[in-house]
Amino acid sequence: MTLELAANQGAVPTMPNMEESPLAIRGMTVSYGQKPVVFSVDMTIKDGSMTAIIGPNGAGKSTLLKAALGIVKPLAGHATVYGKPMAAQRARIAYVPQRASVDWDFPTRVIDVVLMGLYRELGLLRRVLQSHRDTAMACLERVGMADFADRQIGQLSGGQQQRVFLARALAQGADLYLLDEPFSGVDAATEKAIIAVLKGLREEGKTVVAVHHDLATVTEYFDRVFMINTRKIAEGSVGEAFTPENLDIAYGGRLATGQIDQLALAAR
Amino acid sequence: MLWDALTLQLGYNATLVTIGACFLGVAAGVTGTFLYLRKRALVSDAISHATLPGVGLAFILMVMLGGDGRNLPILLLGSAVSAGLGLLCVNWLTRNTRLAEDAAIGAVLSVFFGFGIVLLTVIQTMSAGRAAGLEGFLLGSTAGMLWNDAVVIAVGGAATLALVLMLRRPMGLVAFDPEFAASSGVNVARIDLSIMGLAMAVTVVGLKIVGLILIVAMLIIPPVTARFWTDRTDRVALISGLCGGAAAWIGAALSATAPALPTGPIIVLVSFAMFAISMFLAPNRGVLAAVLRHGRFQRRVHMRQGLLALAQGQPIYENYTLRLLRKAGLAHPDGVATEAGKARAAKALRDEKRWELVRADQAFESAAALYDGLREIETVLTADQIAEIDTRIGGPRGMTA
């Protein structure tokens, strides 16, 4: 019965805002084995916003992003980007995966990682020109890593690795930036640098969506919140959605009552 | 004699084998790089063992159709078909069952190889089979190599190499970060299949020279050798290709110098020699470099600890520390500081205090990040900054009685 429900919701043809939304997800269900990790989730990202996807561990935050991007295959549902199917809009999307998802002993330099962001432009055979290198260097400059261009990536600290990943996303020159836990395991200086870059993107009119795990910084960093625990709990501006009631539903008993009040007070 | 072999002056067959092997070595080295970077090295073992039933079936089919069954291109085609089947089996098992890839590889490898051996045994009993020499595909046999065989190997190797060079960018991208690759629209499954398919092509091309059991060595040893020498993907591929080609050339030449030396195994041993040399002698990543680096680091730690002990008038317990201080002329054999030792010790102690202040001060955050307990503070801060720190510590003060 539950899967039918998901399919039905996914089949609803149009919803408000879908045409212009940078990222609209409809009826998305993803399961590993028989257990759904994300169940029948709708999401409509507002143009020019900075949205935090929050929820407890294993709530399907990262999985939702990966399913939207087609990295994992959803059981049901689909995603559109600026009103068109994802596959046709790859050039408008930049993605920052979790830092821990790659092997940092891989034989490659910082500049080469950033040049990967230009893959769509370079394709199979086009030569890497000075102009491409200049683009990559400008992106490294923006995250404060220009001095590290020729380093092997294994020599970087966690925060530096994260900034290189962000530089690669900047090189993609996209309109929509999707980040998976960009602040996890980074030092304070890096966190500041990353949030400055993201806010800069918003000022340029770009849209930013980040999986975020630190509830204490949600109000300071983001203007919108998408709360998920397998199912969608809430979606809206920080003031509307980041409330004690919603946090209680999303996190269940995992947050102490005092903690919830404190966080939500900060949101007011 | 060896020189004659290396310069291709040892007769027609030896020359054919050497040139064919070299083409194969370069193709295997470059292709193997991406297999190794994608951490799928062992899949090639499953692929190579899965070639055997194809060789057997192709032979039987040719004999049944009235041929003599020894047409190399058709045998290779048969091996490619069954290797492809084995590859699909591994892929399917990994994706659709709970078997991990290593278990799937083990299952496919042994079943296909077992079936192949059964076929070879059957072929032995056929009248046309006795002289077929299909066992040669197990470890390679170059004795009767013909011009046409060499052409097949050279063309196959060159074609594989060209394809690898064409696909190197997406293959590198997928090997480093498959999620990002997928998000930029790369079909990761298809690129993975290409990597495996190219490894399969190398395997098939190499059956005649090194045989299916040892081809894995030609795919894997050169890239791990190359990895010791560089930190860049394109250079790993380049060096790996050179190593593979050189090992094949030298190995084939060596085996030509004596009648009883098998080509494939000698090539593998030459390749291993290159690997061993690289492992010990490569700068940065080599074993010797690591040992030297560790020794240097240990010396600095002991020196520093010794100086701090001298400065604070504590006894030096470790013989190694004392020996270092004595050799540097900083301490007497009884552990008492020399004049030079006193000066250096005072400087060391002052630097400790300076670091303490630097690390406590937010303004020096980037400098403090470089602290490792050994670094000279002059390498991190400018003279002005140090002077500023020093004013906070203050100069030597007299004692009030």
Keywords, please?
heterodimer, A: 268 residues, alpha/beta, Rossmann fold, six-stranded mixed β-sheet, four-stranded antiparallel β-sheet, 10 strands, 37% helix, globular, disordered N terminus, B: 401 residues, mainly alpha, ABC transporter involved in vitamin B12 uptake, BtuC, elongated, Manganese/zinc/iron transport system permease protein (chain B), transmembrane helix (chain B), membrane (chain B), transmembrane (chain B)
Structure explained in plain terms:
- Chain A: GO terms for molecular function: ATP binding; ATP hydrolysis activity.
- Chain A: This is Manganese/zinc/iron transport system ATP-binding protein.
- Chain A: Belongs to the ABC transporter superfamily.
- The complex is a heterodimer of chains A (268) and B (401).
- Chain A has helices at 2-11, 61-69, 110-115, 119-122, 130-142, 158-171, 188-203, 218-221, 238-241, 244-251, 257-267, and strands spanning 24-32, 35-44, 50-54, 76-81, 84-85, 93-96, 176-180, 207-211, 224-229, 231-237.
- Chain A is of the alpha/beta class and 268 residues long.
- Chain A has a single domain (2-253), classed as P-loop containing nucleotide triphosphate hydrolases (Rossmann fold).
- Chain A has a 6-stranded mixed sheet with strand order 6-7-8-3-9-10, with helices on both faces.
- The termini of chain A are far apart.
- Chain B has 18 helices and no strands.
- Chain B has helices at residues 2-6, 12-37, 43-49, 51-64, 72-96, 101-125, 136-139, 147-176, 178-183, 188-206, 211-227, 233-256, 263-281, 287-311, 319-327, 339-360, 365-368, 383-393.
- In chain B, helix 14 (287-311) crosses helix 15.
- The longest helix of chain B has 30 residues, at 147-176.
- Chain B starts with a helix and ends in an 8-residue tail after the last helix.
- At the A-B interface, helix 4 of A face helix 8, helix 9 and helix 12 of B.
